[in-house]
Amino acid sequence: MTKSAEIRVGLVQMTCGIDPLENLTRSIDNIRVAASDGAQVICLQEVFNTQYPCQAEDHSRFELAESIPGPTTVALQQIAKECRVVIVVPLFEKRAPGLYHNSAVVLDADGSMAGMYRKMHIPDDPLYYEKFYFTPGDLGFLAFKTRYAKVGVCICWDQWYPEAARLTAMQGAELLFYPTAIGWIPGEREVYGASQYAAWQTMMRSHAIANGLFVAAANRVGIEGEIEFWGGSFLADPYGNVVAQATHDAEANVVVTCDLSLINTARTHWPFFRDRRIDAFGDLQKRWLE
């Protein structure tokens, strides 16, 4: 039987409370709802089972981290197998005492672990003090073969780096997911809100175009502490068209059909990979050119 080029992709956009188990339970409910709508590959938001921990440098918040594999991945492996879905599971990973990562596990539709990515670019901004918590990833940029598609994952701040998207695409990714926790700090929304969201979305749409693949971001929503997370989870096709987008102000499941045959069509009509001057890009490995 010929494998269908069409798959259904789901993004879960949620608010998060202080109880990780409640967040996990609600996420499982949303996975089941998305699966009942036909979703075959489902992405959760960054550190999905906790409130965003990095608004302050607080040592007690390291207690939110867990090992991989661990209780959350084991629970979701069962759900992946039950619903026959691929799940992108972003977690606050405790790798060893004093060593933590912002990570994402890709679970295949049989419940097995297809692979793991550790966030490479770690920000340090007001209310986003991630360098206090997370060690930069050491696994590189990866894509994982799953039952339905080859899935690439980067996380939030990685969104702003075209090199990350390119290297993930070069691993064969057909779907590139960006689990995210991004929003407005006090006083920003009214003045800068529209332009900030537009820049964020435009950057990822450009990755879809430049690499000829589907790009999707699953963002959290609602107010946690001082941050108003802006939701707006979306999926763009290989031409950069926004196929679906969630609201800024409420929880939502986004489920959309993706025709993977568009990847070959886009890349043969816009042959950016063919025309790359890889012989001239060596200086990209330098911090700056004088």
Overview of this structure, please?
By secondary structure, this protein is α/β, with parallel strands linked by helices. The protein has one domain (6-274): 4-Layer Sandwich (Nitrilase/N-carbamoyl-D-aminoacid amidohydrolase), CATH 3.60.110. It contains six helices and 15 strands. The protein starts with 5 loop residues before the first strand and ends in a 15-residue tail after the last helix. 46% of the residues are buried. The model has no long low-confidence stretch (mean pLDDT 97).
Q: Average pLDDT value?
A: 97
Element-by-element helix/strand order: EHEHEEEEEHEEHEEEEEEHH
The main sheet orders its strands as 5-4-3-2-1-15
Q: Report the sheet with the most strands, covering strand number, pairing sense and barrel closure.
A: 6 strands, mixed
Helix proportion range? 25-40%
Cα Rg: 18 Å
Strand content: 25-35%
- Outline type: globular
Ordered list of secondary-structure elements with their pairings:
Elements: E1 6-13, H1 20-36, E2 41-43, H2 71-83, E3 86-96, E4 99-107, E5 113-118, E6 143-145, E7 150-153, H3 162-170, E8 175-180, E9 183-184, H4 189-211, E10 214-219, E11 221-224, E12 227-230, E13 234-236, E14 242-245, E15 252-259, H5 261-269, H6 272-275
Helix pairs in contact: 1-2, 3-4
Short description:
By secondary structure, the chain is an alpha/beta fold. It has helices at about 20-35, 70-85, 160-170, 190-210, 260-270, 270-275, and strands spanning about 5-15, 40-45, 85-95, 100-105, 115-120, 145, 150-155, 175-180, 185, 215-220, 220-225, 225-230, 235, 240-245, 250-260. The chain is about 25% helix and about 30% strand.
